[in-house]
Amino acid sequence: MHGFQKFPTNILILSTLLCLNGCIAPFIMGGAAAGAMVATREKGIGGTMSDSNLCTKVKMNLYNFNADLHAKVSVSVQNQEVLLTGVVQDASWSQEAERLAKSVDGVKSVINNIETEGEEGLGSMSSDSWITTRVRSSLLFEKDLYSLNYTVETVNGTVYLTGVGQDETEINRVVEIARNVGGVKKVVNHVKIKGQETTHDSAPEATAPTENTSVEVAPIDQSSTIPDVEDRG
After folding, report:
1. At what angle do helices 21-29 and 122-140 cross, to 10 degrees?
2. How is the chain split into domains, by residue range?
3. N or C: where does the chain have the smaller number of CB atoms within 10 Å of the terminal CB?
4. What is the pTM of this model?
């Protein structure tokens, strides 16, 4: 595995902060609210830091392979499961990113949702970042929802959800919240129900996005696809 000595300090710090992104929000709120939200997270603070460490190591591997790959691929880790998203021009880079993620000790499985297209424009990247922020904010302030159990990433208007939900009802709420954010074309659900032990090495390439509608989403069937929502949990 590639070592820390090849990883520039500034890139290491940036990657670590990005990997901790999902953990920072509650502390910004401060006080009892922050403590309560951390306490409800399924994996706890220890599990959060472990996932962040794995995320940083994956990002290190990507950078050591190619700085552009590091820049184009987002890495999220929930319960030792790695989600890779982004847009690359060379299909071999998607395969290489998956290989590098799997090579990190402690990673249980890798979901590869990296798309191979022309170079993504700044406008699209900015829109995706805004969508991700809107979805995360909506989940954060949703009453009786364990928002910190979920990770949100957006690529070309497609929202990818990972994490652990208390039950199907809660997951349905999360999916519906994401679907109703402006600019979202599709929601791909990788969320597992609490207590599930399903593992998989990678997910098939996402299908072409469909238009987002206001049609009510039926309860999630973990083995099937529903309109506008792909369930790969």
Report:
1. 50
2. 1-233
3. N
4. 0.61
